[in-house]
Amino acid sequence: MSERASLHIKGRVLVGPEEVRDELWVVDGRVTYQPPRSPAVHADPPTLQGWVLPGLVDAHCHVGLDAHGPVDAGTSEKQALTDRDAGALLLRDAGSPSDTRWIDDRDDLPRIIRAGRHIARTRRYIRNYAHEIEPGDLAAYVRREARRGDGWVKLVGDWIDRAEGDLSPCWPRWAIEEAITAAHEEGARVTAHCFAENSLRDLVEAGIDCIEHATGLTEETIPLFAERGVAIVPTLVNIATFPTLAAGGEKKYPRWAAHMRDLHARRYDTVRAAWEAGIPVFTGTDAGGSLAHGLVGQEVAELAAAGIPARDALSAAVWHARDWLGRPGLTEGAPADLVVYAADPRDDLRVLTAPRHVVLRGQVVR
Predict the structure, then answer these.
(1) If you placed Cys at 282, which of 59, 72, 96, 110 could pair as Cys (CB 3.0 to 4.6 Å)?
(2) Its pTM surpasses 0.90
(3) Where are the beta strands (DSSP E) in the chain?
């Protein structure tokens, strides 16, 4: 069968932070840097021009979820389309009660890496989001979600304890150790929602692979994360909501409100210190709960505002993130999932919020 080029892209193709090519072709939905030579090839395929990146990565979002729980397929579709149009073509769904497998059959929607459904302690998380269980059942539920997901499991590591009036760990150490061992036996990595300080050491020493939010990192735990290679996804666009959350709960839980304000106030210092220590940092928006989808460009800008150099902040949403999740970028033969911009995003991160074109599975979808 003769190859057929469906698209020609010219300009500056950012294969890596420093590796730049002048053009690529899309043949049968895949990237090639070899000009098609077959006489059966379309002589003049459509051409796009600009600065080209692999599709951006939102490594923490929730398709199929809103502030009240699972949503219908139509709403899930709108969420995925919003991410796509923002240039986020690879999503790590960090917990959802909805079955979104049907999205995998749609060539016009982003690729999703699922972590199954959240696993939380009884009455210690947002209603209608998670499996709510007790410690003795944690390992069994982790095995179940590991088999249902795409190589990840999501725990709720801490949440407000109403009796204490503040954030506190959800699980005893022995339960965490059993659960993480079970996930790893199933070939899955484990991540956990953690706002506060006092759940982190047990999770890391038990072998966890990633922490979401990680606002509670301190001088004592940052070296531990760096030594173990535990990644963080700071979700700074979500952490920006902490003062509003604190104001809403201050009357009933003043300790919790003060704690949330303190975590917010030092958020940039925390992320910068983590990055400077060598902790892997990746972009995630936490979209799909109370936050809108399509904010990946803003999250990259937030990482830069925290003091991470622009090119490293960009890599946290592109090259480094794809390597971490085991998905290719713009390498020879890779699926043609890419975004075209009017200017070099390495020099001006603001362009990330205004894609010129979005190409998914080799088709121009925006």
Answers:
(1) 59
(2) yes
(3) 5-14, 20-27, 30-32, 47-54, 56-61, 65-66, 69-70, 88-93, 111-114, 119-121, 131-133, 152-156, 158-161, 166-169, 189-194, 210-213, 231-233, 338-341, 357-360, 363-364
Confidence label for 352 from pLDDT (cuts 50, 70 and 90): very high
Q: What is the pLDDT of residues 128-175, one digit of tens each?
A: 999 999 999 999 999 999 999 999 999 999 999 999 999 999 999 999
Cα–Cα distance for residue pair 22/244, rounded to 1 Å: 47
Classify residue 183 by burial, with Cβ atoms within 10 Å: 0-12, 13-18, 19+. buried
Which pair of structure tokens corresponds to residue 289? Answer: 């709960």
Single out the residue of 227, 233, 223, 234 nearest to residue 207, CA to CA.
227
Helix H or strand E encompassing 260: helix 254-265
Q: Residue 334, class by beta-carbon neighbours within 10 Å (0-12 exposed, 13-18 middle, 19+ buried)?
A: middle
